[in-house]
Structures are given as C-alpha cells and as structure tokens.
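Weekly modeling sync, notes
Attendees: S.R. (lead), two postdocs, one rotation student

Agenda item 3: backlog of single-chain predictions. S.R. asked that every request posted to the team notebook include the full sequence so nobody has to chase files. The rotation student volunteered to paste the first one in as an example of the format we agreed on. Action items at the bottom.

Example entry:
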Amino acid sequence: MADPGCVTIPDLVAKKARRERITMLTAYDYSMARIVDRAGMDVVLVGDSLGMVVLGYPSTVPVTMEEMLHHAKAVRRGVARALLIGDMPFMSFQVSREAAVANAGRFLKEAGCDAVKLEGGLESLGAVKAIAGIGIPVMGHVGLTPQTAGRFGGFRVRGRDRAGAEQLMRDARALQEAGCFAVVLECVPAVVARKVTRSLRIPTVGIGSGPWCDGQVLVTHDLLGYYDRFQPKFVKRYAQMGRLSEEAMREFKREVELGQFPTPAHSYAMAGESEGRTRRARRVLRRRKGTG
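Predicted structure, as returned to the notebook:
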C-alpha cells in the first residue's frame, strides 16, 4: 500500500477526469531523483534513455536489464512521493510472455518500482496482457518507439498521414483494453495526439506530441542542458546546466593551479594550531607558485 501523500495510479486517472495536467520527468541516480521528486513531479521515469544520456550508447538498444535495475534502485532511494516507473529495455519483453512477466517483476521486486513502461502497440499486446494480468501496472508507449526506430528509418514523427494516424489510434485503444493505466505518445502530430487523448479513458503523456495530451514528459538531461549530442525539436531547455557545470569546473582548475584552493576555510588544522599559522603557510605556498 502506498504511503499517504504518495502519487498513485488512481491519482493520475483522476487528474485526467479533472483535466489537470500530469507532470513526468526522468531520473537515473539518487541525487537527481531527490531533486525531481522535490520539484513535485507526479511521475519519475527511469527511462532507457539512460543508455544515451548517462552511458553514452548511440541508441537505447544496447541497454540491459541489469543496467536498468542498477539505476532504478538508486532512483528508488531518492524518490519519496512520485510514482516511480521502470522502463523495460529492448528484448526484455519481446522474447516471450514468461520473460516479459519475469523482467517486469524484477523492476518491482528488486528495484522497488511502482510500475513498468514498455514500447509498442499491437505487437506488444501479449506482453502487456501478461504483465498486467498478474497485477503489475503497465504504461504503454506508441508513436516513435526508440527501441525499434531503425525499421522506420530513424527518429521520425509517426502518424502524419491518415493510415498512420488510424494505426496510432488502434494501438492506443488496444493498449487501454489490454490493461495499460496510461500511454506515452511520442513524436505524434498534435492534432492526432488530441484525438487519441479524447478517445481514451486512460491518461496520455506526450513528448513531442503537442499541448493536448493529459500530461507531458521530458528527459531531464535535455531539460537541463546536460545532453548536447543533439536537441530534438520538442525539447525546451529550461537551463544550461551543462555549460554552467563546465564553467564551474574550469574555475576549480584555475584556482587549484594558482594555489587559491583550498583556502584555510577548506582545510583542517592540528589541535592547538593557530589560524594565523595556517594563513601564513598559505601565503608561502602562493609565493612559491608565483601568485602573491
């Protein structure tokens, strides 16, 4: 049973009914998880995007279950309020229903997640039904599905023509009927996302799918400007923390090389040693460095 004050799945469904927006961000480590949770997000996703923004892979495909669980455990220790969702990596649910259930269960049993997310529409229904059928909450994901983006020629908007839009609608409805409690719509034309959202009882969470979804999600490293390999059109950078971090590190390097850090305020003295002696020692060191 969730602790009082924690976000639950019924809370998300109720938000859709009240037309209140759902907020969702990614986290991959304890410190960032604490920040995201304190910021008041409804949902924290341990996304397989960690493969690109944390592990440096060229795509999400190489990410393993062990890597996902390692990061999910750290995030769990930092999240106190938000609903925590673990992202099922490539080949963790496609091989068989038995494997899908076992791997989904590991997110809850080993990492303490509240739910799992998996990519795909009609082709993933077997896994969704099997996982949801044993009581594990499942969030779906349609539109651009990064794990299988290669078969569509890369990271492209989905559902731009009538046939594609109708397929998206079928996928989303099928996921709802299979037991998903919500569905991510990634890189879908806004008008299509609006139609899908209005047709579903469950919430939609958009990323690159316009303003009419029931909620929005971004990769936190994109939002903060930490990941600079590329910037999708749908990303708004709310800060340039990558640049600020680099500037801070350069200043650290400069002060160390000039003998300006550490100062007596950042140093320990022997018992009974005077602060004046420590400061004199610092001045001697700086003269030796040619800085004073």
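Discussion: group reviewed the output briefly. The mean pLDDT is 93.
Action items: rotation student to repeat for the remaining queue; S.R. to check formatting next week.
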